[in-house]
Amino acid sequence: MLGFQHYIVMLGTTVMIPSFLVPLMGGSDGDKARVIQSLLFVAGLNTYLQTLFGTRLPSVIGGSYAFLIPILTIINSSRLQLISDNEQRFFSTMRAIQGALIASSSLQIILGFSGLWGIFTRFLSPLGSAPAIALVGLGLYGLGFPGVAKCVEIGLLEFLLLVLLSLYLRHVGSKRIPVFERMPILLSVPVIWAFAYLLTVSGAYRNVPSKTKLHCRADEANLITSAPWIRIPYPLQWGAPSFDAGETFGMMAAVFTSLVESTAAFLAVSRLASATPPPAYVLSRGSGWQGVGILLSGLFGTSTGSTVSVENAGLLGITRVGSRRVVQISAGFMIFFSIFGKFGAFFASIPFPIFSAIYCVLFGIVAATGVSFLQFVNLNSIRSLFIVGLALFMGISVPKYFSEYTASAGHGPADTNARWFNDIINTIFSSAVTVGVMVAVFLDNTYQVQASKKDRGMPWFFPPA
């Protein structure tokens, strides 16, 4: 049941990304269902590989939002927009995305397996790790309460019930099996989902705007009717990938961003799983297998790359179960439900506001995990306060500027004739974690480095022999 709970938690991102991208690519509801199946299948494979050969931490690997900017650039490219037939445009766009993912994955594979990324992670002290991990959670704030507010009667109830079960009732019941503490999401989601279905069949959303129906109705996703009963995703199922140098360079920026975010998430997972901080070579090895995961995403055509699932990292903190076996069981559920499409689509049709309510709690736990790293830092030092404060502030402020600029102008602040350059700048500086890491690592390793080893918490990361 704990493994199934991890599967339910990662479904939100798995459904959201294809639901947003596939219609823009010209795909139908059937195409969207098949892409979701492919993303689930690859997520299961990547989770197995990461827990067996990568960092060997209980980390779930899912879809990544870091790839959206270069993917949207590919979708909106003139050569694809000129295709009038929607089905042909979908297949051509998917092949272009596949080619960019396959080629760009080489960056992370090389950095990881060569050990170069491990050299960089040695510059990450607890002082630099704290804002990085905190921004892993805080950087996704847009997926939290704004999603809850799209259907308050469902999202807010899920939020309140989840807090009640996981906090106030966690010790109620059997001490041998604390059900509320271990499975608050499995207990709360069915209740609110049933309530949403009751509102739907009673006609509560009969005369509301279409956007409200989309977020509130329990039968609006149209995934169950579109999904096949049995279908096994396979490599190159959309056809032979097409390659473009400019699109590959733009996608490499997303790969680098995903690499930074995954490293911070690995540190959060190790902390929440009560493990010791992973050594540099472990992080590097995990990053290499993460690159293999992006390669698989490109081969299978999942519409996006992969990264460590932040929400599942937060779930470790709620349940206090940091077992690799549980995560591997969840990977089995991912693969099973990706093959038996109707069953997978049933759970994937959970209304988005329910997932947003879950994110409010889980992302907050990950953010607080980053803050907990400050216990190893001397907070009486103005140097420490300056670095942490500036990294956190810039990590939130800079991406906010980029998102507001894009919303008003229709393109990012970087808008030149070189699309690949635009994607690199707009992708990197739209990532809260990447901006925060750049600020924290630069300041932490260039100002009073030797004199402040204890203040930075280095003896905790690298204890003396």
From TrEMBL:
Transmembrane segments: 6-26, 57-75, 96-117, 123-143, 155-173, 185-205, 326-348, 354-377, 384-402, 424-443
Membrane topology recorded in Swiss-Prot or TrEMBL: Multi-pass membrane protein
GO molecular function ontology, one term from the record: transmembrane transporter activity
Subcellular location: Membrane
Xref: InterPro entries: NCS2
A single cellular component GO annotation: membrane
Membrane found in the keyword field: yes
Keyword entries, A-Z: Membrane, Transmembrane, Transmembrane helix
NCBIfam families on file: NCS2_1 (NF037981)
Family stated for the protein in its record: Belongs to the nucleobase:cation symporter-2 (NCS2) (TC 2.A.40) family.
Official protein name in the record: Uncharacterized protein
